[in-house]
Design goal:
Elements lengths: L2 H12 L8 E2 L2 H7 L2 E6 L9 H9 L4 H6 L1 E4 L3 H13 L3 E6 L4 H9 L3 E5 L6 H12 L2 E2 L6 H7 L1 H10 L4 E5 L4 H13 L4 E7 L4 H8 L24 H8 L2 E5 L1 H15 L9 H8 L7 E6 L6 H9 L1
Parallel strand pairs: 2-10, 3-4, 3-6, 4-5, 7-8, 7-10, 8-9
Antiparallel strand pairs: 1-2
Helix pairs in contact: 1-8, 1-10, 3-5, 3-8, 5-6, 8-10, 9-10, 10-12, 13-14
């Protein structure tokens, strides 16, 4: 089974579990960008982000023994919530390793979904080390945030839905953190339309994937001080790096100012609540970092933003 087939299989697995999220258009946005723009609103996904897709696809495929022993993951927020929610749905005990600086709204939701949260200080250790220690002690199964083929395939289903809705796209803009959403989206896009330009978008302050893509060597950016907390992963993964190299056409970066303006545009003009990480694709369009071609799809990857951060953005 090739990778595109894995995405299609994930879509069948997610039927009746994941929301088929809406696609929003705006004449104002089309006029500003001189393109036809289609926004895939994963901020309306279960637990508020695309991460539910990958977590459900991966965890639903575990053996009964693995489910009984429990699952562990590490995440600053959205994947944490996704694993916790899927654990509740499937009756799997979940443990989540989260940094002490994770957004409060994401930590609270993770706990409310039933996960046990283990704190760590990102300035003193890594989430991978904490996870490995717990993994070895308890025989949990690790469901990582992005570096897992079932997670990648699940994330690609958002793009399948987008194409099913709008039929044709010339360009697809996708936020990039660890590369799970980007690689899955690019695999799906190329499987449907090989000429569609798949472009990953990162913050300038967290440009490890862009550097890796451009040089062919894996780069790391540790604890980047970007507002887009979902992109603070230090690097692409062992799986996602080669997938990004193979399926993605370009990588671009956007400034913190551009991210703020995109969140504000979505809030004021389209009445959409989108977190900074989720607004990266639109930030690239509005700031001119990407020159649009024809029909442009934009994945709005999530809406889990805490009130204080949104307040600061709207006041800026």
């Amino acid at each position: 089974m090739d990778l595109f087939d894995l995405v299609k299989a994930a879509q069948k697995r997610l039927e009746g579990q994941a929301h088929v999220t809406p696609v929003v258009t705006s004449q104002t946005l089309n006029r500003i960008t001189n393109a036809e723009v289609f926004l895939k609103c994963e901020n309306f996904q279960r637990m508020g982000a695309f991460k539910f897709r990958g977590a459900y696809n991966a965890m639903s495929r575990l053996t009964d023994e693995q489910k009984n022993l429990g699952v562990i993951t590490h995440s600053s927020g959205n994947h944490a919530q996704a694993v916790a929610l899927v654990g509740r749905l499937l009756g799997i005990q979940t443990t989540v390793v989260m940094p002490t600086n994770a957004p409060a709204v994401k930590r609270t939701a993770t706990e409310e979904y039933g996960a046990t949260v283990v704190d760590y200080d990102p300035s003193k250790t890594t989430r991978e080390k904490i996870s490995e220690d717990l993994l070895s002690r308890h025989n949990y199964t690790l469901v990582p945030p992005f570096d897992h083929i079932d997670v990648v395939a699940g994330q690609g289903t958002a793009t399948l839905e987008l194409f099913e809705k709008v039929k044709r796209l010339d360009m697809l803009l996708v936020p990039c953190g660890g590369g799970g959403l980007l690689s899955g989206s690019a695999i799906a896009a190329k499987g449907i339309n090989p000429t569609c330009q798949a472009i990953g978008i990162e913050p300038e302050l967290a440009d490890d994937a862009t550097k890796s893509f451009q040089t062919g060597k894996l780069h790391r950016v540790q604890n980047p001080p970007t507002l887009a907390d979902g992109t603070r992963t230090p690097s692409l993964g062992e799986l996602t790096f080669p997938l990004v190299q193979k399926y993605v056409d370009h990588m671009e970066t956007v400034s913190e100012k551009a991210i703020v303006e995109a969140v504000k545009f979505l809030f004021y003009r389209l009445k959409l609540v989108v977190e900074p990480s989720g607004a990266l694709g639109l930030a690239a369009l509005l700031s001119g970092a990407v020159k649009p071609i024809g029909r442009v799809g934009v994945i709005l990857s999530g809406g889990n933003i805490d009130g204080r951060t949104m307040q600061q953005i709207l006041k800026s």
